[in-house]
Amino acid sequence: MQKECSFCKAKEDIDNRLLAGEGGVYICENCVVSANKIFYGDKEEAEVLAVDEDLRLFTPKELKGVLDDFVIGQDDAKKVFAVSVYNHYKRIFKQHVVKDDDTEIQKSNVLFIGPTGSGKTLMAQTLAKFLNVPIAITDATSLTEAGYVGEDVENILTRLLQAANGDVKKAEQGIVFIDELDKIARMGENRSITRDVSGEGVQQALLKIIEGSQVNISAKGGRKHPNQDFDQIDTTNILFVCGGAFDGLDDIIKKRIGNNTLGFNQTKRGKEESDTILDLVEPDDLVSYGLIPELIGRLHSVATLQQISEESMVRILTEPKNSIVKQYKKLFAIDEVELSFEESSLLEIAKLALKRKTGARGLRTIMEEIMLDVMYELPELAGYEVIISEEVVTKNAKPIYQKIIKKSA
To answer: Torsions phi, psi of 66, nearest 5?
Structure first.
């Protein structure tokens, strides 16, 4: 009797040999190849689908909606960032869906240009938290080339791995935010003869990790030495977001397009056009500022953020889900105290923040200063409403305390 495969019932022949098992069970060579493909050949695709199930691919509109809950204004920048993040994770998880050619989609790293406190870091933190991916935030001014006093560029990846709780695969799909990129711009377009270990040298060192490469890092950070253990991280699927104020970049743009003219009609530039001059930025302007062309070429999506207005500053105080006012109200509620602000007091707080030129991040400091005395007395104020008036902000006056009268049932 001719032997046959117990799975596909194929007869044994010279092109399809059989392997015998216990109890007269046989498996043919074709079924072995198919089983091997099931268990190993499609493993990478199965892993991608499993990760994609855990990290649902949110649309740009959904991502912008999340940003709208936490970041006031900056609609154009939020739209650019939402599209970049969507395309980045679509590239990771969905690129295998289309198999009709050998086209490989490159990642779109992001460059934020805008004043201090305009929301650059907050946007990156917000989406990283929403998507549940690790994020590492670092200041470019603390970085130096390998071998010099300071922090190695590769230590950024150590922070990312730590944020991923040591999970290399998770770290390889995370976000790295590098702030103050403008502070490492070389002075002028001419390359310096002397060693620039914290400027152009750092830019060159960043190229390696941003473009996508296998990097050996120390799990504990610090300087490398030959006897220590290394973790290898592939940066191909890590989204790099860089930000900076780029003070003086507007002057470079004006010089390129004409100081007081715009377009062929030589129209005088008004204040509104002056405020949005950064929207006209081009790669050559960034080269003139001091970024090396190779680095600019790897930051494909550029989003500009505007100076926060007085009105937006008041909205930042009250509207976001985790706004400062909402946080303080919750703190007071824990001690059974109601907290309220007069509209004029919020406006004065916004004016103070603008005067200090620290952007939205200065609001917390101002609020801490104003609320210190009342927070000191807070445990003794149960059953009261505390009202913050304009005079509390402008004249350091005492808040208004009112006993809460409970309505009878």
So the answer is: -65, -45
The span from the CA of 272 to the CA of 32, in Å, is: 70
Helices marked H in 290-339: 293-296, 310-318, 324-334
Beta-ladder partners of 4: 11
CB distance 109 to 296 below 8 Å: no
Cα dist from 245 to 97, 259, 362, whole Å: 39, 21, 16
Residues 325, 367: Cα–Cα separation, whole Å? 9
Residue 260, both tokens? 């007081």
Q: Which amino acid is located at 187 in the chain?
A: M
* pLDDT value at residue 261: 47
Beta strands 301-304; 338-341: pairing state:
unpaired
Residue 109 in contact with residue 136, Cβ under 8 Å?
Answer: no
Taking the chain (409 residues) in consecutive chunks of 10 residues, what is each chunk's mean pLDDT? 75 73 77 64 42 64 92 91 91 70 78 89 92 91 60 85 90 92 71 50 86 79 58 90 91 80 45 66 91 91 89 91 92 94 94 87 90 93 93 92 77
Give the tokens for residue 395: 């004249």
**What would the two tokens of residue 163 be?**
């944020």
Q: How far separated are the first and last CA of the chain, in Å rounded?
A: 93
For residue 271, give Cα distances in angstroms to 110, 249, 275.
28, 17, 6
Collect all residues with Cβ–Cβ distance below 8 Å to 51 and sequence separation of at least 6.
93, 173
How is residue 85 written in tokens? 């993040």
* Size of the chain in residues: 409
Number of C-beta neighbours around residue 168 at 10 A: 15
C-alpha to C-alpha distance for 134 and 137, rounded to whole angstroms: 10
